[in-house]
Amino acid sequence: MTAVAISGIGYLGPHGSGHADLAEAMAKGQQAFRPVDNSAGFPRLGGARMLAKTEAAAWRPWLSPVAARRLCQASRWTVAAAKMALQDAQWQPDDDPENLAVCLGSAFGPLDVTQRLLREIHGAGPESMAPFDFMESVVNAPAAQVAMAVGAKGPNSALCQREASGLAAVAAGYRWIQSGRAQRVLVATVDEMHPVLHSVLDRLGVLSGSRRGLGMEEACRPLDRRRNGLMVADGASVLLLESESALVARGGEARLWLRGALRAHDPSASTLNWGHDHRELAARLQAWLHKQPKPPQAVISGANGSRTGDALEALVLQATPAVRGRPVLAPKVLTGEYGGGFLTAATLIAQGQAYCVTNDFELDPALQIEPLLERSGPWPGPILISSLASAGSAIWLMVEPV
Amino acid sequence: MTRKVAVTGLGILSPLGVGLPAHRKRLLQGKAAIGELTLFDSRAHRTHLAGEVPADPRWEKAWSGNPRLSRSDRFALFAAEEALQMAGLGGQKLGPEVGVFLGSSTGGMLEGEAVFAKLLATPSGPVSVARLGSHLHSAPAEAVAREFKVRGPIETNATACSAASLAIMAALEALRAGECQIALAGGADALCQMTYGGFNALRLVDSAPCRPFRADREGLSLGEGAGLMVLESGDSAEARGVPILAWLSGAAASCDAHHMTAPDEQGRGPSSAIQKALEDAGRSPAELALINAHGTGTPKNDEAESLALRLALGPDVLAEVPIFALKAYIGHLLGACGGVEAVATVLALQEGRLYPLPGKEEPDPALGLRFARGKAEALGTQPAALSLNLAFGGANTALVFEVVANKEGRA
Description:
Oligomer: heterodimer
Strand content of chain A: 15-25%
Number of strands of chain A: 15
Distance between the termini of chain B: 23 Å
Radius of gyration of chain A: 20 Å
Order of helices and strands of chain A: EEHEEHHEHHHEHEHEHEHEHEHHEEEE
CATH architecture of chain B: 3-Layer(aba) Sandwich
Number of helices of chain A: 13
Distance between the termini of chain A: 18 Å
Low-confidence stretches of chain B: 407-411
CATH class of chain B: Alpha Beta
Largest sheet of chain B: 12 strands, mixed
Low-confidence stretches of chain A: none
CATH topology of the largest domain in chain A: Peroxisomal Thiolase, Chain A, domain 1
Largest interface: A-B, 81 and 79 residues
Mean pLDDT of chain A: 95
Mean pLDDT of chain B: 94
Shape of chain B: globular
Helix content of chain B: 25-40%
Largest sheet of chain A: 11 strands, mixed
Helix content of chain A: 25-40%
Radius of gyration of chain B: 20 Å
Structural class of chain B: alpha/beta
């Protein structure tokens, strides 16, 4: 097995630009939810109203206007985050471009430009579609733009795995390094939360506040007794993965070690919801954890406030002896769902970054887990990062502090 | 553990027909299936042709009673079922030892477009969006995993025209790493207004059926369909007592890092993928019996691909190894093309014959490539075949398949 380091972090999201901004917000327990833009008239009367938006021009310090004019918003955010990750790792890919790969995870792809194209098709007609918009609407456009911006000539790929897209990209990057396809991989995740998508998710009933007309409060409350849906965010996050040999050769430093990845699927899940077959998922997870040299000390959970998703997460953790009773942290309470905030937050927490939940929390006795609401300092051993997605995907990563 | 994995099942539907027998027949006849677009109104577009999958209850059926499945989902489900049956896995709950690795560039975009039109008409009105659950790119892979009770890894690759071949590469890696014992891998995509209008806007579409590598080529034709294969270790196939159709022995990917839509004119990116895939397979260029080229039919792409092949294989080998371009039959299937082309590559290896390029136009002499014309021709005795895909964003993928040798040297 090749040891794989996480050596650089780039973050562009509702909490700011750079992982230090997110770290500061995590230490203070700050959320970043704001009212959704209602100018286009999409939000339903009595529906969800809040989301966490990334400032559209947050990429400016990292891209020249000339470079940016050829990129859609999702590509701008991802390229900016990739440059941050390289700067954070203190490495520039000028000597070995074929050994640098890019793997992107995105639940929805470049949505801003996609919805614009759809408006053109159904408005002025398909002949009005702009060629630039179409080029940038493909899911892999941000990955390709990162490759062009930094000169990455290794494998270049884009994966879609709903809420688990970010971890799917990390798992793929880990596999590429293990199989010798690249020495370094920029793993990225990006999503844009356009009012159209927010409205669609609201209509699907997955958002907290989707049933405000029935008196339900709109709040981001993963693993809380009162949770009633998720709250969404956008932005981009990029991690630089390096093989230990590549890291050592350049004298770089690891932030974390990535020890492995496990993927599974729960076929009991419907197209729009999480499944209920926790025993099979737990059996897979336990068998994998049993082979790890050290047991995880804590779980950083992708729980997002969904009634069924959080319940499945809790049941899986309960049914997995290797993690039963371990502290559980759920940083989506701060970052929201989508946009890469979870990936950056999980990396920072595993490094020992201070984290706290300041909004009131009520334990859900049915879940039989008690989330850790405040934590700082180094961990004594490996950490499990968990992400269960709607429609059945499940991905776990094992990371270990340096 | 051996690095090559066995292909034990194939499933395909495309404009040529529904299922493997239809494809064997039409490919040997050299008959293309690109015709008038009927799936949606094309009057506002510059072109009006496409390769459509023919209506057939075998793929149009409800599949476990789910009415919300998209056209792409159903394509994927049919191809998966056909491949599983061929591999002796039909009608089974597949469980934790099986993974799904599927490419799709648009998922259920066709259905999403209809919902979006209603949403635009009444932005805050009571529009049913439930079907958007099948709009997501990941939906076809999820539909397959759900239908066949897969509990192993699932992965949706959405890297445009390399999506399916990258998915096959991911399956190869998962099998080599022991992450699963059996993998369903390939791609599925349906035609939709987004891609049809987009390629028209880019002026990359020919107003006549596409003519890859011909001197008079003027662009691509769009198509739809799905191609999936069952992959597993040779030991697994042997233990299950199923015939091995071919070996997937190598794969590699690279990126041009050059332009979003234009290829690197030197062909260096694809050349790198080809060389690494052959290295991964432990094969030399001289061991190739067949190249299934990406062959879109656009002047620049075909030229750059030819340069890449020459750079990777050398002019002498390239003068000998015949080229096949499935897109001449069915158009460009985008996220599915790597899947159907991989299936066609395995079919050609099994048949021991190279399918002809449809049409009577002259190949472009400037490209220096060799094709079968008019009728299928016998392949040489070399053991391997290359399947190549090049995507938007410069994402290149090369797969190497090998024949299963018997006493006569070919399956």
